[in-house]
Specification:
This is Reverse transcriptase zinc-binding domain-containing protein. The protein has 2 domains: about 100 residues, no CATH class; about 60 residues, no CATH class. About 45% of the residues lie in helices and about 15% in strands. The strands form 2 sheets. Strands 3-4-5 form a 3-stranded antiparallel beta sheet, with helices on one face. A two-stranded antiparallel ribbon has the order 1-2. It starts with 16 loop residues before the first helix and ends with a helix.
């Protein structure tokens, strides 16, 4: 079986990474809509220099109220999506949905970047250890997790006395089922533990 190497978008040039995201005539037209009138070496740099220049070196420039790196990454992603839609569904890209999607994604990238910068704190190591409850009491620790795909859940728990002795340990995991019976079955051990004390 012969592998097709010609660009799916222009059907003229061989498709490689830099052609796909920058040099294809249809893609070049996308970039020219947002780049300054003198794009410098935007269309001549090799792939590594191109990525470095646009994400690291010039990424902080503001274009249409967003950092250039956010636009740049969003446009590359949308070019990739448009190319795959063309291959798999024969759906040609449309300018208005393309730019709407790129704008939304650029905003998302921007918001995520800003959140990470504002909320990043130095990592502090600290020891976590179990402390016993007061005399005559027990300590109950319960935890659970849920994963949407595949729909699964797990719960676990333990009860320990003031001396650290285990009174009860439980763990269970199974496919999630949003019925009252599921919750009754899974929380029955905790209910039993509660009634013991």
């Amino acid at each position: 079986m012969e592998v097709e190497t010609t660009c799916f978008q222009c059907s003229i040039f061989p498709e490689n990474a830099i052609h796909l995201v920058r040099d294809c005539p249809s893609v070049k037209a996308i970039w020219l809509r947002i780049l300054p009138s003198t794009p410098g070496d935007f269309f001549t740099a090799n792939m590594n220099a191109w990525l470095y220049d646009n994400v690291i070196l010039n990424g902080e420039h503001i274009i249409h109220q967003l950092h250039w790196k956010s636009w740049f990454l969003a446009i590359i992603w949308n070019i990739w999506k448009a190319r795959n839609s063309l291959i798999h569904t024969s759906e040609a890209w449309q300018p208005t949905p393309f730019w709407c999607s790129a704008f939304e994604l650029a905003n998302e990238i921007e918001a995520h970047s800003n959140t990470k910068l504002k909320h990043s704190t130095p990592h502090v190591r600290s020891m976590t250890y179990w402390t016993p409850p007061p005399v005559g009491f027990v300590k109950c620790n319960v935890n659970g997790s849920h994963h949407q795909v595949p729909l699964s859940t797990a719960i676990g728990g333990c009860i320990r006395t003031e001396t650290g002795a285990w009174s009860l340990r439980l763990a269970d995991s199974q496919i999630i089922c949003h019925t009252p019976r599921f919750w009754q079955q899974n929380f029955k051990p905790l209910e039993m533990a509660y009634r013991l004390y």
